[in-house]
Amino acid sequence: MRVCVPRFLQIGKGSMEAVPELLEAIGELKKPLIVTDETMVNLGYVDQLISILHSRNMSFAVFDQVTPDPSDTVIIKGIAVLRDAGCDCVIGIGGGSPLDTAKAIAVMSQGSSDLEDYRPPAISNNPGLPILAIPTTAGTGSEVTHHTVIIRSSTQEKISCRGEAFMPTAAVIDYGLTLSMPKRLSIDNAIDTMTHGIEAYVSKKASLFSDRMALDCLRLVGPNLPTIYKDPNNEKARELLMFSATLGGLAFTNASICLVHAMSRPLGALFHIPHGLSNAMLLPQVTEFSIDCAPSRYADCAKAMGVASSADTDIVACKKLVQALYLFQENFEVPSIGAYGVDRGIFETSLDLMIDDAIRSGAPKNNPKEPSEEEMREIYEKAW
Asked: Taking a C-beta distance cutoff of 8 angstroms, is the pair 298, 202 a contact?
């Protein structure tokens, strides 16, 4: 069993103060490229990081043009800034898009800049520049994964680039950076975390290591998701959700994602539905479809989340899990695909493309029950 994890994790509120020490520990790095987006600039987090670097007389450059669902054109722009400034490492700060962009810039600047060369089943294990990831949302787990998702601008297809090269060298897990998250984003990211835990545990590639991370992820996200919905300012719940997101990332990057992620990916690429929300739209339907092929595994998930008791049989626990996931959609105001505003006609004409995209990701093969194209169509229609 081979496990891929960052070299360093700095955990706790205020951990961003340790960035200079982490850069020194990685290899006496002198000039990072800060990769981020306009939101992080406006919230003041980039200035906070710059102030920390200034306090140690460190040079840096900033690339703040990251967009939601970043494309290869954004990566090319970032690589140009990195090379012009002579940076020797990359710091990603923000949600999944800035972190994924930072990882792509670090790797592609040292190899091919053609996204096609990273299309699965390609694996990128040759080191890029060192990466330090600072997540400001609790959900994607990108700070501890060897994946990065980039859109091919010519086709609007999401390419999941994979390999040890994309694993951050260090990550700062500072839950204080999540306190400014809007309620909707907080909920969607927490359900994304839940999806990571469930899919990692039921994946055909699950291992003893990923099982431990997945179940602990679910034990933390299960009770704290409702808490954050009711009280977004609850710092203890924020802290535990942040840690659960990191555990979920460690779980799925070492066990792989399954059908939920495969089918949510084209929803983001074609309709620009945020990743966490698209997972939330599909999680109950995919779980209901898959559950009979791994009842004991799904029952463990239900018990870890606290929606079933240890005394429940697998059958009872599985029923409670499906009921709970549909109830989460209702209670946490997760819209259907149609209610989100996706045009029905465009959705219908895009189904074949979406199904093909999901299959080519390879993730459906990891699912306990591998779907046919028609079954995927039925799941999409049900989620509509």
From this structure: yes
Strand order of the sheet with strand 32-35? 8-11, 170-173, 131-135, 89-94, 32-35, 61-63
Tell whether 2 is covered by a domain.
no
DSSP SS3 for 238 = helix
Cβ atoms of residues 330 and 376 within 8 Å: no
- Model pLDDT, residue 127: 86
Share of residues in the chain with pLDDT > 90 (%): 84
Per DSSP, the three-state class of 110 is coil
Note whether 201 and 324 are same-domain residues: yes
What total number of domains does the chain contain? 2
List pLDDT tens digits, range 198-214: 999 999 999 999 999 99
**Cβ atoms 357, 160 nearer than 8 A:** no
- Domain that includes residue 275, residue range: 183-383
Residues 359 and 372: beta-carbon distance below 8 Å = no
Q: DSSP character for 372? A: P
Question: Rounded CA gap, 257 and 358, in Å?
Answer: 12
Quick one: tokens of 287?
Answer: 């779980």
Is 94 within 8 Å of 139 (Cβ atoms)?
no
Alpha carbon 12 to chain centroid, angstroms: 20
Residue 33 placed within a domain: yes
CA distance 66 to 80: 14
Spatial distance between the Cα atoms of 381 and 377, rounded to a whole number of angstroms? 6
The answer to which of 26-35, 96-105, 149-158, 326-335 has the lowest mean pLDDT is 149-158
Q: Which ranges of 92-207 does DSSP label H, i.e. alpha helix?
A: 96-108, 183-202
Burial of 360 (0-12, 13-18, 19+ CB in 10 A): middle
DSSP string covering 61-77, please? EEE----SS-BHHHHHH
Whole-prediction pTM: 0.92
Distances 181 to 120, 186, 201, 238 between C-alpha atoms, Å: 33, 6, 28, 10
Query: The tokens of 320 are what?
Result: 């409670």
| Domain annotation covers residue 141 | yes
Q: Is residue 3 part of a domain?
A: no
Same domain, 93 and 147: yes
DSSP, collapsed to helix, strand or coil, labels residue 221 as helix
Question: Taking residues 257-269, what's their average pLDDT?
Answer: 93
